[in-house]
Structure formats: structure tokens, C-alpha cells
């Protein structure tokens, strides 16, 4: 059985399957995580470096490349939110929006993993977005 | 229905000269105009090529001129010839055909009091069955310990507050056995409860859920469907119903079959009716008999009545019904087309085709935008006239092209002649022309006699059935589904075709297409806006084609076959736009295989496929006369 490499010892060091989120600000994070949780997909939250000038698209693409599931989310300091897939070109994310729709981003990041069509954007849903 | 070719022309035939003459045969069809360019020499015609363009205006009217000019010029430039070289244009006797389609829904599920929620949210939570009285989330604190309740969480309640409120009520001894939520929150709420309860979410009209009423919430395990609420006796057991009441809830149970989650709320005045709508009657007038049939009797009964009155002389629909309106519209459109000609003709419906179908209709009074599949009958009708205003068309064409224009040749005869240029065919030969508005057939027996028939219902009806059965409300998408195989986008870089093969793309697919059913059309990929599975869309597409084309092919061949016996037909050549379809010719070949007929898609002149038959037939016929 030469050539077979036993990687069992490395298992602990590997990250468990999860969507990775790089967030440079607090806004929208709770809603983002709620969207992923509702769809039943695990997520690993890392602090992007706060105050970094990286855009949401850059953060999301870096997160997607770190994610064992190839899906990442980025929230930049200005409150832009982006969902990205590691196999897509860096400048062509799946969705980009702002933190008002962080929940929707969470749902869609999860749906990329489980293979469900993306949810309709909130304003196109029949239910009017609650105004509180 | 015996017809001989007859040629009429104001200018007479050009005398055959020893030099070759350049001729263009032009077939004006319902949707496309085709041209065939040929050089006529002493050894017969030498074909130089063809062209096709959309027909301008209604077939057989002067509006066709721009379309004809376009194809003739295209055919000439493709062959590298100039317009001055052309000696004559041959046009078939195109008789206007106008077809109409209508749909009548014959059942309806009406819930006058909100009594059920039967939608399929992507993520309901918990599993099992909860029963109790419906209570608004804000009133949960007022419930007494021991009470069995279903909590209704309205819009704007945060999932953490909802979970905390339900947990607190349970701590006090209130038995919260299930919940109904407005937002997409079910798992978020259940994950925060000490013990899971079934929660149905995404109920958009949650404020309409009647409060203080006995209710049941059921969520099935992933991969399963509800068992109790989709069973009439299950509902009867839960709510202690008598036989009469059980009869009333049976439509609710039926509407919930196949759902992963469901809610039934028992309201005292709940009145669920599964009733048949009076859909009007259709009166079929034959040459010897006149019979009326209710549209709600279904397609089979309508077609049986049609056979009893055959041959059909005319048909009328009850005023005020969709069918009555459609038949009147078709008649009016034809009358208008003919109005510019001197001849006052009576416009009569020549054929109808009824097809059973179903339409997803919003359940009146339901709480989450539920749809119920209702039975419907689709009806196609067509009128055709024997005389067409061809002289006007020929005159205008003559001045537009500056060459002699010869009108002549019965369309069916020309189609047969063109079809006979398909390699491997001989008389007796039947052509089956599958068009957009009508399905036509013609049979040429060994002695040159041609019998033809024109039936209502063709490609447009298939599109309509696909559109309505899938609830698309988008003709363009339905047309795409009809014409192309389906696929499912499985990743950003590959799709799985309906036959299981994978296809990869270099460019990432748009995110709207992800995990969706898509059609791969000529203009690229288009996502199908539906939640139906690929299998379901495929089944609807194939059954629509079967219900229209296979039924009509058999109907048409039986009408032209000697004694109605298909075995007397040797060869069937399938022509027309729908013969280019990727599965219709195979379906027809399969259906007639039992009669020992050679059936296949035509290949006019061995190279044009099922196109250009009439145009080629015109040239062929003319060449035969010239020699």
C-alpha cells in the first residue's frame, strides 16, 4: 500500500466545514449569522482587521478561499456586504449589497453551499420589508 | 376533397426558351415565408438554394409583400445572382388561416374563511404535530398554565424575543405545541428553545390567521411529507369532526398532499367549496347534425362529440364564456382580413381541438399564497377560407420585384411534390405539416390524387399549455422550454442536462441561474422562473407535445387515409417548423409505428430538412409543365 498517506493525524488542524465571514465592522453581523443559521449551514466568523481599507468584495473573496466549502462573506468598514465563491473570478462576486440586507446575504451564502436557488431580493418579495 | 393543380395568372406563362431561366418558388406560410431559387434548363431544374423570413401580416393578404421581397432578395444574394436575372416568381395559393386559443377553468377551490396554510417554506423547523388554540405572540403571557396553544408570531417580532417568549410560557406550564411565523425564522426560533416544537414560517399573511380557534401545525422530517393533515380522517380525528364536516375538509386535506409543512385552523364558519364553474357550452354544427357539449365535460367528451357531427361545418360558443369569446374573435379576425376583398364570404370554424389541462390557481382566501391545481380545458379553433385575395398580392408583388409573378398551385399538392424530393420516398405518400397555428396533412395516392385536411391546434397551443401548466405567465420562456432541452445549473461552471450528461462552461454562470432549472436556447442560457423540479418541467413539456401533436397527427392521417386506414399510407413525411423540434417527430414516429408506416422528418431536395417543401414543389411543378 505504498503511496497511501495517512492524514488522520492532521484532522484536528484542518478547519471544520463552514462558510467563512470576514467582517470589518459590527453592523449586519447578527443578521448575517441568522440567515446562515436558518438555512442550517455552519459559519466561522473572523475579524477582518478593523479599519482596513479592503472592500467587501476583497474580504469576501479571501474568506471564500479560506472556506473549506468555498463560500465566503465579507462586510467592509463602510457597511457593504458581499457573498463570494472561491471558484469565481475575484472581481465577479455572487451578490453585493449593504448591511440592510445582511440577512439575505446569509441566506444566499448558505444556499450556495446546499445547492438551492438564491432567495429573491427582499424588495421583490411579496411581503413588504418591515419599516420600524 | 379532390384537387387538381390549377394555375391562374394575368401575365400568362413565359415561353420556354432554349436558354436557362431563373425561377424563385415562394411559399407564404402562417409564420414563415420560404423561397427556393432554381435554374430551369433543358435537363430539368437545378436548385441554387433557399431562404426564409418571418411572414409579414396574415398569410394570403397583400401585407405579405415585404416578407416575400425579403426572402427573394436573400435567396438571390446567397446564390450570387442579381434581381434582373430573375424571370419569374411562383407563389402558392396561400389561403388565410386564423387560429385562436382559449382556456376555461372548470374547477375552483375556494376558502371563504382562512382555514389552512399549505405552502412549502424551504426551512420549516422542528418535526411532529402540535395542536392547540391559536394565540398571538403578544398574548402568550395571558395564557393559563396547562392550556394547549399554537403561538402566532407576527411580522416584526425578533427571533430571539420570540424564542424567549415561548420558552417563558412553557416554563409557566403553558403547553405551546407549535408556532406559525411570518418571517423566515423557524429554525432560529426552534434552535433557541429548550425542546423543539414544529414551526411553520414564511406565512406572509400571518395577521389573517384567526385567533382563539383550534388549530394544528404539522412539520415532517426532512425528505418526508405531512401525514396527518393531508389525510381527511387525520383532520377529523384532531378536530373531532362528524361525517358532514369531514366531507367539507376533504379539499383541504387534498390541497396539503405533498407538502413538508402544513397548518389547519378550524373556523366555525369555515366554508371550503370544491365546485365546478359553469364553463359554458360549445355547439358543434355538422353537415347533418348539431350537438351541444358542456366545456366542463372535458376534452374527451368534446372530441367524441366532434367525431359524431363530423364533418364540422361551424362551431359556436356560449356568449360570455371564454370559448364563446375566442370563437367570436377568430371569426372577426378572419372577417376583417377578408374585408378588403370584394368577395363576401361566410366565415366558418373548420376544426376545433380540445385538450385537458390544469392550471395552478391561487387559492382564494389562503394565507401564504397557496396554489391549487385546477382542471381546465384548452380549446384551439381555426378558420380557413377557400378563396384568398391573391390577385391583390400578386399585383403588388409584381411592382415591388419588377418580374412576372405567377400565382398557382394548391398548397397541399405543392407540399407533396416538395416532400417527394426527400430521398427514399414514393407515392402513396402523406405529408404532415406541423405548423404554429394548424396541423395540416395531405395524402398523394399513386394516381396523383391529393386529399388534404387542416386541423386546429399546433405549436402555439403547445406553448400555451406549457405556459399555463407551469404557471409561468411568460410566453417567451414557455417558447424556450418548448424548443430546447432542459438543464440544471449544478455549480457556477457546469450544468447537468436532462439526460444526465454534464456540460462545462469557461465563464462563470450568472448567480440568478445557480441551482435553477435552465433552458439552453440559441441566445444562451435562461433560468426558468419556477420552483418545479427539472423532471416536472420536462414531463409538462412532453405531455403538452403529446396532447397536441401526436393526437393531431393521428387525427389528420386518419382523415386523409383511404377508408381511415393508416396502413394504406406508405410513407409519412413530417414537415413544417415544428418538425425541427427535437422530440416531436420521434413522438409521432413512435405513435404510428404500429401501422407499419415509414415515418420520418422530411429532407427536401436531400438538403433542406423539413423546410422549403412548398417552395420546391412550386418550382418542380412548373418545371414539369415547361418540359
From TrEMBL, chain A:
This protein's source sits in the domain of life called Bacteria
- One Pfam annotation reads Dehydratase_MU
Q: Which organism is it from?
A: Prauserella sediminis
Q: Which SUPFAM superfamilies does UniProt cross-reference here?
A: B12-dependent dehydatase associated subunit (SSF52968)
**InterPro entries for the chain:** B12-dep_deHydtase_bsu, Dehydtase/Dehydtase_re
Full protein name: Dehydratase medium subunit
Amino acid at each position: 500500500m505504498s503511496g497511501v498517506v495517512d492524514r488522520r493525524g492532521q484532522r484536528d488542524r484542518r478547519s471544520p466545514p463552514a462558510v467563512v465571514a470576514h467582517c470589518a465592522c459590527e453592523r449586519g453581523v447578527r443578521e448575517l449569522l441568522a440567515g446562515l443559521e436558518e438555512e442550517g449551514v455552519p459559519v466561522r466568523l473572523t475579524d477582518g482587521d478593523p479599519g482596513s481599507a479592503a472592500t467587501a468584495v476583497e474580504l469576501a473573496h479571501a474568506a471564500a478561499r479560506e472556506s473549506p466549502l468555498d463560500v465566503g462573506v465579507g462586510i467592509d468598514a463602510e457597511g457593504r456586504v458581499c457573498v463570494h465563491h472561491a471558484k469565481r473570478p475575484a472581481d465577479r462576486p455572487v451578490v453585493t449589497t449593504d448591511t440592510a440586507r445582511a440577512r439575505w446575504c446569509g441566506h444566499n451564502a448558505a444556499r450556495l453551499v446546499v445547492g438551492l436557488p438564491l432567495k429573491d431580493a427582499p424588495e421583490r418579495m411579496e411581503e413588504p420589508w418591515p419599516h420600524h | 376533397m379532390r384537387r387538381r393543380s390549377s394555375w391562374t395568372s394575368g401575365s400568362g406563362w413565359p415561353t420556354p426558351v432554349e436558354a436557362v431561366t431563373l425561377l424563385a418558388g415562394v411559399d407564404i406560410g402562417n409564420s414563415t415565408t420560404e423561397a427556393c431559387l432554381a435554374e430551369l434548363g433543358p435537363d430539368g431544374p437545378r436548385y441554387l438554394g433557399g431562404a426564409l423570413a418571418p411572414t409579414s401580416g396574415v398569410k394570403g393578404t397583400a401585407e405579405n409583400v415585404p416578407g416575400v421581397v425579403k426572402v427573394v432578395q436573400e435567396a438571390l444574394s446567397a446564390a450570387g445572382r442579381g434581381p434582373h436575372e430573375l424571370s419569374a416568381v411562383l407563389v402558392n395559393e396561400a389561403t388565410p388561416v386564423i387560429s385562436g386559443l382559449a382556456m376555461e377553468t372548470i374547477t375552483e377551490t375556494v376558502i371563504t374563511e382562512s382555514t389552512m396554510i399549505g405552502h412549502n417554506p424551504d426551512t420549516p423547523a422542528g418535526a411532529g404535530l402540535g395542536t392547540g388554540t391559536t394565540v398571538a405572540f403578544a398574548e402568550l403571557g395571558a395564557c393559563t398554565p396547562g392550556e394547549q396553544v399554537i403561538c402566532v408570531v407576527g411580522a416584526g417580532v425578533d427571533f430571539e424575543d420570540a424564542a424567549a417568549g415561548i420558552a417563558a410560557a412553557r416554563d409557566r406550564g403553558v403547553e405551546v405545541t407549535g408556532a406559525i411565523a411570518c418571517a423566515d425564522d423557524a429554525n432560529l426560533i426552534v434552535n433557541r428553545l429548550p425542546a423543539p416544537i414544529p414551526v411553520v414560517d414564511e406565512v406572509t399573511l400571518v395577521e389573517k390567521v384567526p385567533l382563539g380557534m383550534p388549530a394544528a401545525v404539522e412539520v415532517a422530517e426532512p425528505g418526508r411529507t405531512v401525514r396527518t393533515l393531508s389525510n381527511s380522517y387525520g383532520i377529523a380525528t384532531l378536530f373531532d369532526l362528524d361525517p358532514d364536516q369531514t366531507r367539507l375538509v376533504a379539499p383541504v386535506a387534498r390541497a396539503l398532499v405533498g407538502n413538508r409543512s402544513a397548518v389547519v385552523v378550524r373556523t366555525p364558519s369555515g366554508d371550503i367549496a370544491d365546485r365546478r364553474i359553469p364553463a359554458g357550452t360549445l355547439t358543434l354544427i355538422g353537415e347533418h347534425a348539431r350537438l351541444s357539449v358542456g366545456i366542463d365535460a372535458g376534452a374527451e367528451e368534446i372530441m367524441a362529440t366532434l367525431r359524431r357531427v363530423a364533418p364540422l361545418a361551424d362551431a359556436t360558443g356560449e356568449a360570455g364564456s371564454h370559448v364563446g369569446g375566442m370563437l367570436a374573435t377568430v371569426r372577426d379576425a378572419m372577417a376583417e382580413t377578408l374585408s378588403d376583398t370584394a368577395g363576401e364570404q361566410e366565415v366558418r370554424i373548420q376544426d376545433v381541438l380540445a385538450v385537458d389541462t390544469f392550471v395552478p390557481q391561487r387559492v382564494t382566501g389562503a394565507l401564504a399564497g397557496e396554489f391549487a391545481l385546477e382542471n381546465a380545458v384548452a380549446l384551439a379553433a381555426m378558420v380557413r377560407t377557400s378563396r384568398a385575395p391573391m390577385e391583390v398580392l400578386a399585383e403588388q408583388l409584381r411592382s415591388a420585384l419588377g418580374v412576372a409573378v405567377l400565382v398557382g398551385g394548391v398548397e397541399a399538392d405543392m407540399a407533396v411534390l416538395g416532400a417527394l424530393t426527400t430521398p427514399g420516398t414514393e407515392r402513396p405518400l402523406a405529408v404532415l405539416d406541423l405548423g404554429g397555428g394548424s396541423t395540416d396533412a395531405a395524402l398523394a395516392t399513386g394516381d396523383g390524387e391529393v386529399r388534404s385536411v387542416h386541423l386546429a391546434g399546433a405549436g402555439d397551443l403547445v406553448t400555451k399549455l406549457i405556459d399555463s401548466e407551469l404557471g409561468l405567465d411568460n410566453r417567451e420562456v414557455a417558447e424556450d422550454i418548448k424548443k430546447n432541452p432542459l438543464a440544471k445549473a449544478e455549480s457556477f461552471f457546469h450544468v447537468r442536462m436532462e439526460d444526465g450528461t454534464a456540460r462545462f462552461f469557461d465563464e462563470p454562470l450568472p448567480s440568478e441561474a445557480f441551482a435553477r432549472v435552465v433552458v439552453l436556447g440559441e441566445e444562451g442560457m435562461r433560468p426558468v422562473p419556477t420552483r418545479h423540479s427539472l423532471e416536472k418541467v420536462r414531463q409538462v413539456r412532453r405531455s403538452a407535445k403529446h396532447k397536441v401533436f401526436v393526437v393531431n397527427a393521428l387525427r389528420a392521417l386518419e382523415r386523409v387515409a383511404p377508408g381511415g386506414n393508416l396502413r394504406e399510407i406508405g410513407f409519412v413525411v413530417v414537415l413544417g417548423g415544428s418538425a425541427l423540434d427535437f422530440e416531436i417527430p420521434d413522438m409521432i414516429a413512435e405513435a404510428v409505428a404500429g401501422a407499419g408506416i415509414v415515418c420520418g422528418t422530411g429532407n427536401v431536395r436531400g438538403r433542406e430538412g423539413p423546410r422549403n417543401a412548398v417552395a420546391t414543389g412550386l418550382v418542380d411543378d412548373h418545371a414539369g409543365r415547361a418540359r
